[in-house]
Amino acid sequence: MKMKKIPAIFISAAILLCGCGKNNAHSKDIFAMDTYMSLKAYGKNAEKALSASEEEIFRLENIFSVTKDSSEIRQINRSGGEPVKVSLQTFEIISLAKEYGEKTGGALDITVYPLLREWGFTTGENKIPDKETIEKLLESVDLCRISTENGAVSVPSGTEIDLGAIAKGYAGDKVTEIMRGCGVDSAIISLGGNVQTIGTKPDGSMWRVGIASPFSAGEEIGAVSVADKAVVTSGNYERYFIGSNGKRYCHIIDPKSGYPVDNGLASVTVIGESGAVCDALSTALFVMGYEKAAEFYRENGGFEIIMIFSDKSVKLTAGIEKNTVFADGIAAEVIN
Amino acid sequence: MSRKVKLIAAVTAVIFILSAIGTAIVLKPSGSRTAEIVQNDKVLYVLDLKKEKDRSITVISPDGGKNVITIENGEIFISEADCPDKTCIKMGKLRSESLPIVCLPHKLIIRIRNS
Fold it and tell me: For residue range B7-31, what is the model confidence (pLDDT) as tens digits?
């Protein structure tokens, strides 16, 4: 009797091992929204989900772009105050950006674009503008200048919308919706540093998301383990320039002062459910600085933060502490 | 044990061993140092960095852009590029699976090959 059981064990083991085949990774590289995106999905509908996701990313890029002539954002920016009928997605993302702009006391402001251009961050020809120019441009930077009514958006002349601070997070949410709709229950997508995950890895373990070191290119300062979460980082290390005065200017502009943020923070990572919200908050909290960001967290919650400071110190919220690891020599302090 | 049972046992044993080998290949540990160079969704090179000798690879993109990739002491990085921002050079050596080296203008990616 015992001997007869052996083939059965072999057969079940063989089936079990062959079963791994259905968990093959399917991946896609996409260059869109001015960044590199990498999508990886598992399961039998993964290929279909990836194609549909790619299509959606290019569609969103075409309506959200601030430089493409045909985009809805460009039409709004050139409308001279006339309402422009827009797609559901454009209306939704602008409404969301306004909501989080207001919630964060204007720390996130999608009308900061003219200043970003003046500092040369849109062209790559960086310069330090004079005080008068900054003050003049600040007059048209205000969320309240965006009107959203009946599916139409308008801004007065001089005010320009740029979705750079939220578009990738929003696209990430749409991609995860599409993938789930296709029946994918295990996927990781990285849209230029905005990472979003569906479920866990096929083996049931959590996804490991590296946190880039603001101090050394290509190196990780730590990593966070997540499942079904978005992990979005805003930092001063990706796009910056050194002025003729030797000072470093990063691409995140404080909408109140008109100057690049310089508050001791090197990067802010936000971990939460929605990519768009994490994207909006990572920028806003970076602009706010430590004290105000910690206060915002205590008052609102619903997300976790990892803050890396220019002096290499790290502060994080208690909810994510046990899921993070840091490089040797980095001690993380919990935000209370 | 009849001959039939012996045959089944032999066949399943072979299937078992083959799938075990296959699984071992598929699930090899993520600490791998195999890099791949990808352009326009095409894998141009797969390089085992532990075995590669020091050398340089020049990749010309379809629109004429040029990147020189250097392998040195088991490390890989972009040493030369004619793109405007040179971000790919600033990204330094490939160190992490989460942080590939990317040259956006030339749609070139160097990353650690996934298991």
Answer: 878 877 777 777 666 555 544 444 5
Residue A218's pLDDT is: 84
In this complex, the residue of B9, B26, B109 whose CB is nearest that of residue A10 is B9
Q: What is the pLDDT of residue A14?
A: 46
Burial A262-295 (b: 16+ CB within 10 A, else e): bbebbbbbbbbebbbbbbbbbbbbbbbbbebbbe
Between strands A220-226 and A207-212, the pairing is antiparallel
pLDDT tens sequence across A175-193? 999 999 999 999 999 998 7
Q: Are strands A187-191 and A194-198 parallel, antiparallel or unpaired?
A: antiparallel
Nearest to B109 among A11, A34, A36 (CB): A36
Structure tokens belonging to residue A142: 């205000």
Taking residue B113's Cβ as centre, other Cβ atoms within 10 Å add up to 15
> How many residues comprise chain A?
336
Mean pLDDT across the stretch A106-133? 94
Cβ pair A223:B9 closer than 8 A: no
Out of A7, A14, A28, the one facing B5 most closely (by C-beta) is A7
Output the CA–CA distances (angstroms, integers) from residue A272 to A21, A220, B23, in the order listed: 31, 21, 34
Give the whole-angstrom CA distance, residue A319 versus residue B78: 39
Measured CA to CA, the distance from residue A98 to residue A169 in angstroms comes to 15
Neighbours of A308 (CB within 10 A): 29
Residue that is written with structure tokens 């250097």 in the block: B70
Q: How far is B87 from chain A (nearest CA, A)?
A: 9
**pLDDT for position B30:** 44
| Pairwise CA distance, residues A249 & A237, whole Å | 10
The ipTM value here is 0.76
Q: How many CB atoms lie within 10 A of CB A331?
A: 8
Specify whether the CB–CB gap between A279 and A272 falls below 8 A.
Answer: no
Cβ contact A300:A284 at 8 Å: no
Cβ contact (<8 Å) for B99 and A212? yes
Mean pLDDT of B28-54: 85
CA distance A59 to A30: 13
Q: How many CB pairs under 8 A join A and B?
A: 80
Determine the Cα angle at A145 with ends A94 and A59, to 5°: 25
Q: How confident is the model at residue A15 (pLDDT cuts 50, 70, 90)?
A: very low
pTM above threshold 0.90: no
Residue A188 tokens read as 């990781």
User: Has residue A2 got a pLDDT over 60?
Assistant: no
Structure tokens at B106: 């030339």
